[in-house]
Amino acid sequence: MSWIILAALGAIALGLLWLLGAPRALWTFGAAALMLGAAGYALQARPGLPGAPVSAAKKTRPDDAALRDLRGAMFGRFTSIDASFFAADALVRGGNAEKAARLMLGSVRASPNDAALWTWLGMTLVEADDQTVSPAAGVAFRRAMVLAPAHPGPPFFYGLAQVRAGNFAAARPLWRKALALAPEGAGYQRDIAIRLALLEQLLEMQRSGEQTAPQPQPVR
């Protein structure tokens, strides 16, 4: 039975990798890690042992070509802001998310009415804050939505940031809005729809689990 549970957890984990926007190259690594972890646990699991502290390492990121393509599909390619995007991408990949956020802040100051730049300032701030949607990141995303109220990009990436931060309920209205704003027939419309459907299923599973969980009995 434990192997069935491990297989189910593996399938859920891979689904979450896609939902979180992880690059496809990471899927294979994730699958291999799950298999190795399951085998190792089955062979020599010792859950009673205390954990050991590890030293912090520079948090580099894999190249996320899928997310970059999605950004280009929504905001356009070969534009004047590509230089800011690509430079920020390179800094994030190298583990310099704080520098990426400062770079995007400078770009926003130079072009304060560009919704795409505000959106990516929000994304880099989330990276710099270790996948936390800080008040500053929220301001950046909301400013982008005010500047381009009919564009699906700002609410989609705001929702993606919320998902990566674990704020699934907060992401749902943002992705619903992004899907409603996506042009009919746009290549990314289906991508948004699938992500939203997975998110809805996840939230429904959470709700069902809360309803079936045993309620604490009053102390007498």
Automatic annotation (TrEMBL):
Gene3D superfamilies: Tetratricopeptide repeat domain
Matches recorded under InterPro entries: TPR-like_helical_dom_sf
Name of the protein in question: Cytochrome c-type biogenesis protein CcmH
Organism: Sphingomonas plantiphila
